[in-house]
Design goal:
alpha/beta, TIM Barrel, eight-stranded parallel sheet, 15% strand
């Protein structure tokens, strides 16, 4: 399967694993890369020394390309970027910020840069900043999201119409059928998060993995737009957020409720009531925890089968 994305990253399939906080450690990233996709280490939940450890372990676990996802909201981002350069990482995905801030620095070091966007406006800004590709993430996605609430399948063709660089679709994609649909609409590849969160190699807590299997349509909601939009499972913490909104809270009120380490508490430590549980709407079709190799194989096989059925 050769196209712009496989050639850009030197991978077998145009499938990128989302760099999810508390979920995407070296085990998940190396497993995805070994299976033919592009694994990403999620740096957003790592102290600098922890990121270095994960990069080093990932290099030992795979001889295939892998990358690091860096949210620009990260307070010690300078340290992270220097570690990425020192450790010889060749692919960086940036998100939640201005792509101009770090793209030139990374490109000067010979690093391939991809930026995550939620609108045509930001896709054009990313292209102007010099990134090599953009991830177009619709609001179906788990984790931090755009405020526009554009769906993935409306966003892809609109962005594809405006930019010349490769486009990667994200949000609501967890199967071969979804991958084919995204590529029919103009995507050159796909980024998949939730499906890989529910794998054996994911660093998510077993309780959270089970929650992913239990989630049905309507069980998640995009909220906390004043801080950074995030799709949450409707648990006790989510209900507390909604009750606070009824009181017309200030930004400080919302920050106080959120507190510290809510995402760690939920996704990494398994507190299903008081933790922040981030997952995409596609969780409704995830019914089993499987090894990464099997998940990726099933996605590719379904993609080829459905593609062939349409061609015939």
């Amino acid at each position: 399967m050769i196209n712009k994305i496989t050639q850009l990253f030197n991978i077998q399939y145009p499938i990128i694993q989302g760099g999810m906080i508390w979920v995407s450690g070296w085990r998940l990233a190396s497993a995805v890369s070994n299976a033919g996709g592009l694994g990403l280490i999620g740096a957003g939940s790592m102290y600098p020394d922890v990121l270095r450890e994960h990069i080093q372990k990932c290099k030992k676990a795979t001889n295939k390309p892998f990358g690091v996802n860096v949210p620009m909201l990260y307070p010690q981002i300078d340290e992270l970027m220097n570690i990425i350069v020192e450790e010889g990482v060749k692919i960086v995905f940036t998100s939640a910020g201005n792509p101009k801030t770090w793209t030139a620095f990374l490109k000067e070091k010979g690093i391939t840069v991809v930026h995550v966007v939620s609108s045509v406006k930001f896709a054009l800004k990313a292209e102007a900043a010099g990134v090599d590709a953009v991830v177009c993430e619709g609001f179906e996605a788990g984790g931090h999201n755009g405020r526009e609430e554009s769906t993935t399948f409306t966003l892809i063709p609109m962005v594809k119409e405006q930019v010349k660089i490769p486009v990667i679709a994200a949000g609501g994609i967890g199967s071969g059928r979804g991958m084919l649909a995204a590529m029919v609409l103009g995507a050159d590849g796909v980024q998949i998060g939730s499906r890989f969160a529910a794998t054996q190699e994911s660093s998510a807590h077993a309780n959270f993995k089970q929650t992913i299997l239990d989630v049905k349509d309507g069980d998640t909601h995009l909220t906390l737009k004043e801080l950074a939009p995030v799709r949450l499972v409707k648990n006790k913490f989510y209900q507390e957020v909604q009750e606070l909104y009824q009181k017309n809270p200030t930004l400080e009120d919302i920050k106080e409720l959120l507190g510290r380490a809510r995402a760690k508490k939920g996704m990494f430590e398994g507190d299903l009531q008081n933790g922040e549980l981030e997952i995409g709407q596609i969780a409704g079709i995830i019914h089993e925890i499987k090894p990464v190799k099997q998940v990726l194989k099933e996605i590719v096989e379904e993609f080829e089968e459905v593609k062939k059925s349409f061609q015939s």
